[in-house]
Design a protein that fits this description.
Strand content: 15-25%
Oligomer: single chain
Distance between the termini: 38 Å
CATH class of one domain: Alpha Beta
Number of helices: 20
CATH architecture of one domain: 3-Layer(aba) Sandwich
Bound molecules: pyridoxal-5'-phosphate
Number of strands: 15
Structural class: alpha/beta
CATH topology of one domain: Rossmann fold
Largest sheet: 6 strands, mixed
Radius of gyration: 21 Å
């Protein structure tokens, strides 16, 4: 299977090359060319283990990697606290797909455990001998998961940019204390979009002009714009469906709805791919916080980024430009690259684009949407805890509430799977406030108070953070990112 850009340049790459390069030279995202979805037998996955499912889905999309079995094994074995990788639990009238059992307690571990292995294999396969410098902008969770995944992987360095003051204390410490000779985390003055745009600009400049002479490296990305990030996420939609089948909650072929706390649109897009592969997915419900640009888009067809950016208690979803939406536009427009290139141009020059009414109708056939502000997010955490004794984090609470609203008005009653994207302990301040735990500025003390009240155990990777040495403390301006990157490569 070949890969090409969503924006129409003629670059045609193998999957190894697409994973290595990250972003297309024209600024677009890589997409598989004419995949034969009908050749994928989704039912075959149902009795499989999580790792077998992963191997099967990865091998379908990334077909020129040798020995996917060993890649998946190296990625996951011993890294998650359960062999299920992504277990499902029944909570009240719905199902929660727990995506936070990996090494950093957030759902990004599912993909970022695989990507470094894919990249080192791809580097060998295409004979790339230069150092690979991974640049990643993070709203909090990607950064740590990527640093953990790439730590001490030979031939690859990683530099993570996070918004100064835009991540929780725990998230920041997770990054700034990360071990590994080849990792670095740096704060950028600005918000997540500034950091992400900064990284995108560096990629497109370097694609055009190259790195300065004598800089012996290639750049790549670990953000969800990398196709190697997206594909591993498709798997847990199958895993959840299989769990529902096993428990007798559904019979094979029943439609299941999924509610997804959404930021960069990577997670929910993976659900759409699962549907393309034949999985009986009903509606994909896109849940946003107060940064509800996607709610507006999926309701009206107008994507307008000319609006205020809000800092919320669910920071991993504080995003105005959802990169992976571009991939959905491409798929929904029947792979019409000119249509996508035109919209993306409008977005960058005017800050707004509108899709035609028939296009919007197509979107609405697969997607629903909703948003939840901070006050309701916290009420939801409290309600779910009091009614079910189950502790959810702020992002999951956004989705839970949107699912509640969706289920109340849905014509057809179907099982609803809420994707739980982080451990509640990653966002202790908001969680503590929600369930009436006595406040303190010390997030670690808060974690202990929450544990004492709820009995839900603190993940070990988080409780151990406090004692770790801070290794990175640089704060830079967004205009200085390029020079900083070059300096780091040459260090
Ligand atoms: C990244 C993240 C999200 C959003 O996922 P996208 O793929 O960017 O839409 C939601 N919740 C948490 C906890 C995250 O880390």
């Amino acid at each position: 299977m070949n890969y090409k850009s969503t924006r129409g340049s003629n670059e045609l790459l193998r999957s190894t090359e697409a994973v290595l390069q990250g972003l297309a030279k024209d600024g677009g995202l890589f997409m598989p060319v004419a995949p034969d979805y009908s050749a994928f037998d989704w039912k075959k996955l149902m009795p499989m283990t999580a790792m077998e499912m992963s191997e099967t889905v990865l091998a379908f999309f990334l077909d020129d990697f040798d020995d996917m079995k060993s890649i998946v094994k190296r990625a996951y074995e011993g890294k998650f606290d359960t062999d299920e990788l992504t277990p499902v639990v029944k909570v009240g009238d719905r199902y929660v797909l727990e995506l936070f059992h990996g090494p950093t307690s957030a759902f990004k571990d599912v993909a970022l455990s695989v990507l470094p292995v894919l990249m080192s294999e791809a580097k060998k396969a295409v004979g790339e001998e230069r150092k690979i410098m991974i640049l990643t902008a993070t709203s909090g969770d990607t950064g740590k998961a990527a640093m953990e995944g790439f730590s001490d992987v030979p031939g690859i360095d990683i530099l993570v940019f996070f918004p100064d003051g835009g991540v929780s204390t725990v998230q920041k410490l997770q990054m700034t204390t990360q071990k590994g000779e080849n990792v670095c985390a740096t704060a950028v003055r600005g918000n997540f979009d500034d950091a992400q745009t900064g990284v995108k600009v560096i990629f497109s400049d370097v694609a055009k002009n190259g790195l300065p002479e004598g800089t012996n490296a290639v750049l790549s990305s670990a953000n969800s714009i990398n196709i190697g990030r997206l594909v591993p996420q498709i798997v847990y939609y199958f895993k959840a469906y299989a769990e529902l089948l096993k428990s007798g909650a559904i019979v094979s072929g029943d439609l299941v709805d999924y509610t997804v706390p959404t930021g960069n649109f990577g997670d929910i897009l993976a659900g759409y791919f699962a549907k393309k592969l034949g999985l009986p997915v009903g509606t994909l419900i896109c849940a946003s916080n107060k940064n509800n640009i996607l709610t507006d888009f999926l309701s009206t067809g107008v994507y307008d980024k000319r609006r205020d950016f809000h800092k919320t208690v669910s920071p991993s979803m504080d995003i105005l430009v959802s990169s992976n939406l571009e991939r959905l536009l491409y798929l929904m427009a029947d792979e019409d690259e000119n249509f996508v290139a035109d919209l993306m141009k409008k977005l960058s020059t005017d800050g707004i684009y509108t899709v035609p009414a028939d296009f919007l109708a197509k979107l609405k056939a697969d997607f629903a949407c909703g948003c939840t502000d901070d006050a309701v997010t916290e009420e939801t955490i409290k309600k779910v805890y009091e009614e079910n004794g189950y502790l959810i984090d702020t992002h999951t609470a956004v989705a839970w509430n949107v699912a509640t609203e969706f289920m109340a008005q849905a014509e057809e009653k179907r099982p609803n799977v809420v994707l739980a994207t982080a451990s509640a302990y990653k966002f202790p301040a908001a969680v503590a406030e929600s369930i009436g735990v006595e406040p303190t500025d010390d997030e670690f003390e808060l974690m202990e108070r929450i544990e004492k009240k709820t009995g839900a155990p603190i993940p070990k990777n988080l409780s151990g953070l406090k004692a770790r040495e801070v290794r990175f403390s640089d704060v830079i301006d967004k205009d200085a990112m390029y020079e900083y990157v070059v300096g780091k490569i040459n260090e």
